[in-house]
């Protein structure tokens, strides 16, 4: 699975002009299931995200995780993270999991996140979403788990 993690001071997702997910300080996580991914990859990705020490401690060093800070998680599905641009200027998305499998793994990921973290918000799978964020730092980290 592929993710792009952004440390934010705030973020929200809109669908059709209505806010459907919103957090204050925490992590905006764009997540993509690829062909062949399973629950095991989702579990490893979530564990890494929850423990990733990218928040400042008292000395200003990145030494605290989202769990340490009690920050929010805003999980947004984004199949375009699987883009392959090696064949030209038009991306191919053939590496992304199919819609049914992608939805199943995204839903599993969200379910496991909610079981492990107190503040989890989401986007809407396969919707035309508008994602608003204030990147804190900025801190943006790509993370892939095979």
Task: For the structure shown, list the relevant keywords.
D-tyrosyl-trna(Tyr) Deacylase, Chain: A; alpha/beta; 24% helix
Word description of this protein:
By secondary structure, the chain is α/β, with parallel strands linked by helices. The model has no long low-confidence stretch (mean pLDDT 97). Helix 3 links the parallel strand 6 and strand 7. Strands 1, 2, 3, 6, 7 and 8 form a 6-stranded mixed beta sheet that branches. Strands 4-5 form a two-stranded antiparallel sheet. The protein has one domain: D-tyrosyl-tRNA(Tyr) deacylase (D-tyrosyl-trna(Tyr) Deacylase, Chain: A), CATH 3.50.80. 24% of the residues lie in helices and 39% in strands. Helix 1 packs across helix 3.
Q: Quote the average pLDDT.
A: 97
What characterizes the major β-sheet? 6 strands, mixed
**What Rg, in angstroms, do the CA atoms define?**
15 Å
CATH hierarchy, class: Alpha Beta
Task: Give the total of domains.
Answer: 1
Topology as a string of helices (H) and strands (E): EEEHEEHEHEE
- The CATH architecture: 3-Layer(bba) Sandwich
Q: Strand portion, in percent?
A: 35-45%
Question: Total number of β-strand segments?
Answer: 8
CATH topology: D-tyrosyl-trna(Tyr) Deacylase, Chain: A
Structural class call reads: alpha/beta
Uncertain runs are none
Globular, elongated, flat, extended or rod-shaped: what is the shape? globular
Number of helices: 3
Distance between the termini: 6 Å
């Amino acid at each position: 699975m592929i993710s792009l993690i952004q440390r934010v001071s705030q973020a929200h997702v809109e669908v059709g002009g209505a806010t459907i997910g919103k957090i204050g300080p925490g992590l905006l996580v764009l997540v993509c299931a690829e062909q062949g991914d399973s629950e095991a990859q989702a579990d490893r990705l979530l564990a890494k995200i929850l423990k990733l020490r990218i928040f400042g401690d008292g000395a200003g060093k990145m030494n605290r995780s989202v769990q340490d800070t009690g920050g929010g998680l805003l999980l947004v599905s984004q199949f375009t993270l699987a883009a392959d641009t090696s064949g030209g200027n038009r991306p191919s998305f053939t590496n992304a999991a199919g819609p049914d499998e992608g939805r199943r793994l995204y839903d599993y990921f969200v379910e496991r996140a909610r079981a492990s973290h107190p503040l989890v918000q989401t986007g809407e799978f396969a919707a035309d979403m508008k994602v608003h964020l204030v990147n804190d730092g900025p801190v943006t980290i790509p993370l892939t788990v095979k």
